[in-house]
Design brief:
The protein has about 130 residues and is an alpha/beta fold. It has one domain: Response regulator (Rossmann fold), CATH 3.40.50. A five-stranded parallel β-sheet has the order 2-1-3-4-5, with helices on both faces.
Length: about 130
């Protein structure tokens, strides 16, 4: 269970994946905002207090790397976990993310990364990818 009610933003263009992760993260104690496309995600990110982001890489029109870059310009201290089916992202795509998780790994892997990043952010540092 999450120690505090941190607010996470999940962005994924696949509704089933988005719903599943949101339910999982809510079940373990997080408050979750969801966006089904990059534009909606950027709007929520800019207008809400967000503690961390779970961001899909492969989305139409605007890939996760470009979304992460835009987010870091808005709120550079908010950690971003890139969730991807690609084990090796293009170099520029991972430049603005704090960690990556490959789809298909157990949910606990994503949860551990989020908790690491939040703990590191609380201490003013950066967790390892």
């Amino acid at each position: 269970m999450a120690a505090t009610k941190a607010t996470l933003l999940c962005i994924d263009d696949h509704q089933n994946s988005l719903s599943g992760w949101a339910l999982f993260l809510q079940h373990v104690g997080y408050s979750v905002l969801s966006a089904a496309n990059p534009d909606e995600g950027l709007q929520l990110f800019a207008t809400n207090p967000i503690d961390a982001v779970v961001l899909d890489y492969s989305m139409p029109d605007l890939d996760g790397g470009r979304v992460a870059a835009a987010m870091k310009r808005i709120k550079p201290s908010v950690p971003i976990v890139m969730f991807t089916a690609h084990p090796h992202l293009p170099k520029g795509a991972s430049r603005f993310v704090d960690s990556t998780v490959v789809k298909g790994q157990p949910p606990q892997v994503l949860l551990d990364r989020i908790e690491q990043l939040l703990a590191s952010a609380d201490q003013g540092g950066k967790a390892q990818p």
